[in-house]
Amino acid sequence: MKSICVFAGSSYGARPSYRETARQLGEYMGTHGYRLVYGGSKTGLMGEVANAALAHGGEVVGIMPSGLAKGEIVHTALTEYIEVDSMHERKAMMHSLADGYIALPGGFGTFEELFEALCWSQIGIHQHPIGLLNVDGYYDLLIKMVEHSMKEGFAPPTNMSLMSISATPHELIHSMSDYLPPNGQLKWQPKNNQR
């Protein structure tokens, strides 16, 4: 795993720890030779992780749709900036350049990107590690929701093993480096109670 796609808020969030952890992630990636692939913004946690990676010698690739580039502040100091036509093209390119994913705290966009990566892992489109950077318990309720979906019969117990979870960047990346995809679990299993 040498190229990590990071999903993160384009805002800074309510806690200083979110911003600080984004910086720590970027620093760790830069100093350890991981390429950062992300959404291309200069603002929020997205900008923090990119700036820290660049400051520590990292390669940073930003990808942004032309429509969003007018509203968001585009990072102009990246190793590579790619402008695409749509959100779908942005996500497809991010996925094609990554061999691992990390979600920092964020909102709907971050959740959507995270769950797409998880869904694609679940159905076998990729077998890359996926990490939740659970800063100050930010993702605790999301983890409970995933556990609830298993309890209610909408997801197999192996789904939890699709995610590595940690509060610190170095522990998370170390855990992701040891990731092995679950074997033998198909998404669609015949149900005994089907008629």
Automatic annotation (TrEMBL):
The keyword Hydrolase applies. One of its GO terms (cellular component) is cytosol. SUPFAM superfamilies: MCP/YpsA-like. Its EC number is 3.2.2.n1. It comes from the Bacteria. One of its GO terms (molecular function) is hydrolase activity, hydrolyzing N-glycosyl compounds. This is Cytokinin riboside 5'-monophosphate phosphoribohydrolase. InterPro entries: LOG, LOG_fam. Belongs to the LOG family. Keywords: Cytokinin biosynthesis, Hydrolase. The keyword Transcription regulation does not apply. Signal peptide: none annotated.
